[in-house]
Every structure is written in C-alpha cells, then in structure tokens.
C-alpha cells in the first residue's frame, strides 16, 4: 500500500515503515560517528523504548557502549492494509540493526504498568541478560491502571491552584492566540501523579529486586522536564510538574533502599515527541526554541541529548543538582538562551511567528516522528506495512 500521513489532533494515526527505519538508522549513525562511550553497564532495560527519549537511550547504550537490551513499549501491530504504530516500526528496525551488530535486543510489547508485563519482562531478562545493571524509565502515557486495585487513572495536563492565561499556537494553521486553562481539581492532580509520578518506577525496581535480576551496583534513571519559566504556569507548576516532583520522592526512596548511586532523575530539554506535542503552550515554546537554539548552534534532538547524557554527564564523578538530579537541560536553560526566548515570546503574534520562530521545522520534526518527511525515502512506493528493513 501507499502510506500517507493522517493527522488527527495531536497525533498522526499512520506511520511509514521505511521512514521509521531511516530515522532509527540516522540516530545510530549519530552515535557511531562520535565513537565508543566507555561504560560497564552492558545489560540494560529500557521502559518506553520505542520512541523519543527511550528509543534514543536504547540506541546510545547499544551502539555507544555495546549493551544488550530488553525494551518495553506499547504498540499497535500492523495488518495487511493498516500500518503499525511508529514505535512498532522503530522497535523492529532497532532489533534488526542491533542483532546485525552482534547485540541482543528483546522487546516486550504491552502495558508496562501491569503485573503481567513486569513478569514477562523479568523472564526475558533472566533468559537473555541474566541481570540488569541499568534501568531507564522513559514511559510517557496519559493513562494508567493501578495493578493493585484495577482502578484506571487519567492524567489532566492543567495548571494547579489557579487558572492560567497564556499564548498558544495552533500548529496546523500557524495562528497564535490566547488560551485560558482552568486549574485542575484535586482529584485530577492526584490522578496525574498516579499516572506520571514515581509509583510505577518504584514498583518496577521492587519487582526486579524481588526477582533477583538487579545486578549489584545497578543504576536507574527517570526522565523529567523542568523547563523554561515561560512554560512553568502550565507545566512545572501544573499537574504534570507535580507528578514529575513525585519522581524526586521516588528516587530518594529507591536510593534509601538500594544505595546512594542507585537512582537519579535526569532533567532533559524540550524536544518534539508524541508526548510533548499534546501539552498546551509547549508547541509554541518548541517552535521558538528550535529557531533560537539553531541560531546559537546548540540545536539538539533526543539522540543528541541522550548521547551527551551517557558520553559526558555519566562519566567519572557524576555532577548532581541539589535534588540529586542530573542536568542535561543546561543549554536550554542557559541565561543567554532564556533571555532571547523571553524577548521573542513577548513579541509573538500570528504575524511575527514566521520571523521569530520556526514552525516549518517543528512540523517537519513532528512528521518525522511517524516516518514521514524523512529525506531519501520514496513515499510513492508501494510498501507492505508488515515489513521493516
Ligand atoms: P514518547 O511519547 O516519545 O515515548 C513514550 C514511550 O512510552 C513510548 O515508547 C511508548 O510506547 C511508551 N509507553 C506509553 N505508555 C505505555 C504503556 N502503558 N506501557 C508500555 N509502554 C508505554 O515520549 P518522550 O517525550 O520521549 O517522553 C519520555 C520521558 O521523557 C517522559 O518521562 C517525559 O516526561 C520525559 N521528557 C520529555 C521531554 C520532551 O520534551 N518530550 C522533555 C524532558 C523529559
């Protein structure tokens, strides 16, 4: 079939196998060209391995440090006349390339929040890796069913405590307008913490520990966004920020049980991913950030951030902030960049957007998440949606 993009709201419901495979290859090339990353952590579990920061983590550990990996993600399989999710194509493309490089790569597709998938993953670790010495937690989901009581919680990405009025962007039309978002109820805030807070991370570490598959001296990382003050009202000080704050609590609890170096939250920069494009205000900030960081020669996507995390920040004595976080958001939050972003933010209107920000590149990066707009791919070619190179 000929696969074309079909955009519905914040998501593209189709994905292209050849384009997704090319994306995976480009990320591998980025790491390989930079050379080996010294690391003793050769047995890695990546939760949320199929897209965004999780996929980049799997690629960096495999192709930078010769690690064998088990990955977990939630996907839609292809059918004869229906493409799979982008993550399904990414998983297959990654596995093919990792195995060709002599690395083990086993992927479990299902609900990582469930006890059943945790048990299946532990069996896969025992059979393929024995134990794990690095666990990357990179799940981003709007919904979680608590395995203890079967209650399903939905996150609400809203301000906390007071309503927020902010500029926002319709990425389809390029229109900049003002939105007012009402604050979350306490129930919505608690539900968001249930979904995106640290509880499931702790459950994973406990399940792995109880099963005896955590290697001595293991480390676990969980990704957060603190971000620019421009997005604080909707993000850092909102329900999502509250949930992310709960990761600091969970990291402390894991360290109390497993040792001072066992768990860290890692603060990363804003990038275009399926998760981030659904957050109000963030896409407008993203279009501005893309332009300013490119002008400053500091543009980074997920693979650049995660490469820098493993190649620089996790080598030798690891530098932590006062919440024991590792900071890779240093370039985004640097004073010159934030000053420029704030200046432009104040001037942003539908009319000034093309000069101040880079909506075309944002759109291209969004399409690329689904394997479209990838250079060198012939989209007019008939492809079998069940096959990935
Ligand atoms: P993403 O949407 O690209 O990836 C999410 C991953 O989680 C995918 O592999 C998906 O399959 C998996 N997943 C979702 N629900 C699942 C479930 N129930 N079971 C198994 N797998 C499931 O998201 P991302 O932007 O890479 O986010 C990853 C982490 O990085 C999040 O914690 C996010 O907050 C953080 N982060 C993101 C940004 C950003 O700008 N995108 C910035 C800083 C930190």
UniProtKB/TrEMBL annotation:
Record-linked InterPro entries: Eno_Rdtase_FAD-bd_dom, Enoyl-CoA_Rdtase_cat_dom, FabV-like_NADH_b, Trans-2-enoyl-CoA_reductase
Residues that, per the record, bind substrate: 225
Keywords on record: Fatty acid biosynthesis, Fatty acid metabolism, Lipid biosynthesis, Lipid metabolism, NAD, Oxidoreductase
Domain of life: Bacteria
Domain Enoyl reductase FAD binding: 320-383
Catalytic residues identified in the record: 235 (proton donor)
Enzyme Commission numbers on file: 1.3.1.9
Catalysed transformations (reactions): a 2,3-saturated acyl-CoA + NAD(+) = a (2E)-enoyl-CoA + NADH + H(+); a 2,3-saturated acyl-[ACP] + NAD(+) = a (2E)-enoyl-[ACP] + NADH + H(+)
UniProt binding sites for NAD(+): 48-53, 74-75, 111-112, 139-140, 244, 271-273
Limits of the Trans-2-enoyl-CoA reductase-like NAD(P)H binding domain: 2-79
GO biological process, one term: fatty acid biosynthetic process
Family, similarity comment: Belongs to the TER reductase family.
Protein name: Enoyl-[acyl-carrier-protein] reductase [NADH]
Lineage of the species this protein comes from: Bacteria, Pseudomonadati, Pseudomonadota, Alphaproteobacteria, Hyphomicrobiales
């Amino acid at each position: 079939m000929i696969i074309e993009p079909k955009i519905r709201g914040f998501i593209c419901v189709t994905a292209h196998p050849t384009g997704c495979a090319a994306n995976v290859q480009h990320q591998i090339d980025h790491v390989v060209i930079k050379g080996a990353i010294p690391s003793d952590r050769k047995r890695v579990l990546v939760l949320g391995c199929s897209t965004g920061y999780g996929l980049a983590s799997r690629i960096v550990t495999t192709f930078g440090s010769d690690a064998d990996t088990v990955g977990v993600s939630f996907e839609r399989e292809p059918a004869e006349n229906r493409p799979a999710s982008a993550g399904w194509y990414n998983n297959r493309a990654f596995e093919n390339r990792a195995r060709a490089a002599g690395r083990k790569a086993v992927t479990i597709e299902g609900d990582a929040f469930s006890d059943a998938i945790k048990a299946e993953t532990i069996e896969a670790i025992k059979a393929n890796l024995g134990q794990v010495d690095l666990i990357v937690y990179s799940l981003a989901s709007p919904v979680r069913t608590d395995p203890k009581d079967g209650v399903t919680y939905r996150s609400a990405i809203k301000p906390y405590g007071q309503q927020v009025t902010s500029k926002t962007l319709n990425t389809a039309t390029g229109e900049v307008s003002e939105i007012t978002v009402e604050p979350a109820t306490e129930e919505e805030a608690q539900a968001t913490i249930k979904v995106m807070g640290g509880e499931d991370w702790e459950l994973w570490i406990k399940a792995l520990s109880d099963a005896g598959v955590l290697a001595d001296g293991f480390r676990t990382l969980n990704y957060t966004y603190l971000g620019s003050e421009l997005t604080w009202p909707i993000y850092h000080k909102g329900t999502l920020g509250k949930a992310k704050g709960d990761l600091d609590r969970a990291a402390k609890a894991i360290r109390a049980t497993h040792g001072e170096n066992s768990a860290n939250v890692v603060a990363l920069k804003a990038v275009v991913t399926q998760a981030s494009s659904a957050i109000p205000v963030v896409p407008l900030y993203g279009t501005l950030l893309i332009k300013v960081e490119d002008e400053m020669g500091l543009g980074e996507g997920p693979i650049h951030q995660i490469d820098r995390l493993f190649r620089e920040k996790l080598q030798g004595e690891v530098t932590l902030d006062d919440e024991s976080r590792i900071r890779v958001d240093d370039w985004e939050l640097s004073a010159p960049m934030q000053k420029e972003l704030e200046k432009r933010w104040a001037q942003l209107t539908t009319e000034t957007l093309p000069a101040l920000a880079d909506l075309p590149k944002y759109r291209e990066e969004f399409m690329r998440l689904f394997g479209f707009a990838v250079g060198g791919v012939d989209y007019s070619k008939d492809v079998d949606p069940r096959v990935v190179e």
